[in-house]
Design brief:
The chain has 2 domains: about 70 residues, Hypothetical Protein Ta0175, Chain: A, domain 2 (Alpha-Beta Complex), CATH 3.90.1070; about 280 residues, no CATH class. It contains 13 helices and 8 strands. The protein is an alpha+beta fold and about 375 residues long.
Length: about 375
């Protein structure tokens, strides 16, 4: 951002309506103020709204015992020429996920029909599509709703089609124009997606177990040795949402095991992606939350052990490279106001995010 070259008096007038100005000057090419207020958080929210309307962006930081306010001119917004990109990507993702579900059914169609002759592959693929898109869609709409509630300008979700038979979707992204106004808004933004996706994941996990197939133990090795892992409760940690959902069902009789179908993979995928998103690194949802709690310096360096964790034991090599590049080239900018403390409600969201991350831990079935 470029420092303000004109309109300094107008900027000072806006600041003085919300804060008491102790001193002022220039710093880093921007107009800078040392300010005071009875309610710093509320005063800054009012100021940020007024300045956005005038094409300016304020940043509030603590320096020693003082509160420093810097005002920059807002960057030019790029022209949007992506009107049809979102719907096209959504259609492509729906097609790939549906085909992925059909493909996973076909790998075990003979075994499935042996125990359920009436099973319909198109219905199973459709259920798989609803499950996967339900979790990912709920996640993104949680972000979108939180952004709208905080007054942030953001695009609709851009879903990313994956590779059939490997990973049906790479998730989705939302293009965000503004920075969250304060640490509360940043926590809400990071928490809203995983929380919404997790609510849908609970339902999908229970449905996956309800539609699980009971087979003789002698067939279990055949079922689990195909091109894709078939996840049963025995392969998930006992505290995970997958295992807790399985615990709602009565145990199978002796000599019989329960294995999940394509819906089990959908539940595992939603659980795994939610867990990864909540890791406290870079621009991940957990990274937003960690930045609000830890501050700039500590947040930047806590990403290093997280990236190493992705390499081993999680074995997410491409994800580790991706997060490392973002960590190196695009440091987290935080919120506009990082001088105000987190509210009690958002401290609770931080605790809930940790709990959701633990419940969603489901290692790669390799």
């Amino acid at each position: 951002m470029e420092g303000l070259d004109e309109g300094n008096e107008a900027v000072r007038s806006l600041v003085s309506r919300q804060f008491r100005i102790a001193s002022e000057g220039y710093e880093d090419g921007a107009l800078a103020f040392v300010v005071e207020a009875e309610d710093v958080k509320r005063s800054f929210i009012e100021l940020a709204g007024e300045m956005r309307a005038s094409g300016r962006v304020p940043f509030l930081r603590r320096r020693g015992g003082a509160i420093m306010l810097k005002v920059f001119s807002a960057p030019q917004q790029a022209q949007r020429g992506r009107r049809y990109l979102g719907p096209l990507l959504l259609a492509a993702t729906v097609a790939v996920v549906f085909y992925d579900g059909y493909l996973r059914f076909s790998w075990y169609s003979g075994l499935r029909r042996a125990f359920d002759p009436q099973v319909n592959p198109l219905v199973e693929a459709l259920l798989f599509l609803v499950a996967v898109m339900g979790v990912f869609g709920a996640h993104e709409m949680g972000h979108k709703t939180s952004a709208a509630r905080s007054g942030l300008r953001a695009s609709g979700p851009y879903f990313l089609p994956g590779i059939p038979g490997v990973l049906p979707t790479f998730g989705a992204v939302i293009a965000q124009t503004d920075l969250p106004v304060n640490r509360d808004a940043l926590v809400s933004l990071g928490f809203s997606g995983p929380a919404s996706g997790f609510a849908m994941l609970i339902f999908i996990s229970i449905l996956a177990q309800a539609k699980a197939v009971s087979i003789p133990a002698s067939f279990a090795a055949v079922w689990s040795s195909g091109p894709t892992p078939i996840l049963g409760p025995f392969e998930a940690p006992p505290f995970s949402i997958l295992s807790l959902a399985a615990a709602l069902l009565p145990p199978p009789p002796d000599g019989v095991v329960t294995v999940t179908t394509e819906l089990g993979f959908a539940a595992w995928l939603g659980s795994f992606v939610t867990f990864i998103n909540l890791l406290p690194a870079s621009q991940l949802d957990g990274g937003h939350i960690a930045r609000s709690v830890l501050g700039s310096r500590l947040h930047r360096w806590v990403a290093v052990p997280v990236i190493l964790l992705m390499v081993y034991p999680l074995r997410l090599y491409l994800m580790a490279v991706f997060v490392f590049i973002i960590w190196l080239k695009a440091p987290h900018q935080g919120a506009l106001d990082e001088a105000s403390p987190l509210s009690r409600a958002n401290k609770l969201k931080v605790i809930l995010a940790l709990a959701i991350g633990a419940l969603c831990y489901a290692p790669l079935p390799l």
